[in-house]
Amino acid sequence: MKTIIHDLGDAYNARLTSKAERVIFADGKYAPCQGCFRCWTGTPATCVLKDVLQEACRVLGTSDDLTVITANTYGGWSAPVKNLLDRSIGVSTPLSTYRGRQMHHTLRYGKKGTLRVIVYGSITAAERETLTLMAGRNALNMGYTEYAVDFCETAEEAGERV
Q1: pLDDT digits (tens, 9 = 90+) for 28-47
Q2: Are 105 and 96 spatial neighbours (Cβ–Cβ below 8 Å)?
Q3: Strand pairing partners for 103?
Q4: Is there a smaller number of Cβ atoms within 10 Å at the N or the C end of the chain?
Q5: Which residues fall within 8 angstroms of residue 137, CB to CB, at 6 or more apart?
Q6: CA distances from 111 to 97, 116, 146 (A)
């Protein structure tokens, strides 16, 4: 299954739906992660907050390929995308293991395919480096075996690159 997370706006949902089985619009109309960790232990892979992201862990955990389209925000995810990714911590368990010769949380759903990040907006060389490093670390933490980062100038261009 392929999933797309984006912050491009509601108008892009129809266009992106033809390119993936699941499209999640990071519109920010949901609660932030409360840090309770119940999605890890109490209600595995299900957030206790009852909103559109309650099953985000399961959706992202079972996605073979994930594309994240985000505005550049100081070399990081946009706030709505970051909030959505924070709410998906339940894709792993609280147990630890070694992956890539480093300690990481055990994956709840196993290894996946590719994490692709498409970043749009004005971006400096240092921000490009930070985003590329962050995408690689997120890919490893979420169980993706490969990752790629694309940069473009506008949201329209980002929407067409999927």
Answers
A1: 999 999 999 999 989 999 99
A2: yes
A3: 98
A4: N
A5: none
A6: 13, 15, 10
